[in-house]
Write a structure and sequence with these properties.
Alpha-Beta Plaits, 2 domains, 4-stranded antiparallel β-sheet, 14 strands
Length: about 300
Amino acid sequence: MIEVRQLTKQFGNFTALENISLRVERGSVYGLVGYNGAGKTTLLKNICGIYKPEKGEVLFEGENIFNNEEKKKQLFFMPDDLYFGPYANMVKMADFYNGYYDRFNYSTFTRLVEAFGLDPKKRIAGFSKGMQRQAEMVLALSAHPRLLLLDESFDGIDPQKRLLMKGLLKEAINEYGMSVIISSHNLQELENLCDHIGIINGKKISVTGAVDELSRGRTKFRLAFARSFDLKEFENIKCEGLIKDGQLAMFTINGDTKEAEEQIKLLNPAVTEKISLSLEEIFLQEMEGNEYDFKEIIR
C-alpha cells in the first residue's frame, strides 16, 4: 500500500533523512522508533505529502503522494502538535472533515464520541491535552481513512482510554483494511500494537522487519559457571555485548544460534539461559553508539 523508496529529505544544508526505504502493506501496523529528533515526524510528513523529498519518492497504492489530492483524501495524519481553532468544537470539526473526506461517517462519529465520553459541543480548546488527542482520534476514525498516520498519539492518554484507542484501531483494521504508521517513544506500546517495526538511527532506518522475527533473530544468553573463567574463552563465539559479572557471562547472538550453542557446550557452563530480546533491548542495542559518558557531564 505505502512504499517509501530511497527517500532523502534536506532542510538547507541539513540532511534530516537519508536513503530511507520501507513498505507498509494493507491492514498492517508499522511502528517508527527513534530518539527525539531522529526524523520520525519528518518521515511521516513526507509520507502524507506535506514535505517533498529532495531524492526518492513515496508511493501510495502505486501513485506518488506529493500533490496528489485524490490520494491524500484517503489518508489521515494525526500530528504530535494538534491545532484546533479557538471556537472549534467536535461537531464543527466533523462538518469540516466531512467536506474533505468522502468516506466520513456521522454515525461512526456519534458512536465514538459516546465511547470516549466527550462533549461534542464543548470548545476543544478547553479540553485537556489527552482529551484533545481523543477528540482527534474520533475524527480520524470517523473519516474511515485507508491510511492513518499517528505521531506520538498516545501521549497524555490515561491507560483506560489507551486500551480503547488501540481496540478501535484494531477493529478499523479488521473492518476495512486500514493501514497504520505510528511513531512513539513508548516501545512497550508499539511491541503490543505493531506487526512491523522500523528503528531510525543516524538519519537512516537501521533495522526493520516483523516484530516477532526481529525478536527471534536476536537472542540473549546468560551463562552461569561453577568456576572462574576468562573472556578469552569466548573468542570462538560470534557474539555482541559480551559482559562478565563474577561467574556470570552475558551476550547476544544475532541470527541462527546453532553454531554458538555448540561452542557454549564446550565451555561447560553450569546453567545456560536463552531469551529472545524484547523490542526495547533491540532498540538499545542499535543505539549503543549514542550512549552518554556521564563522567564527562558530571564533573
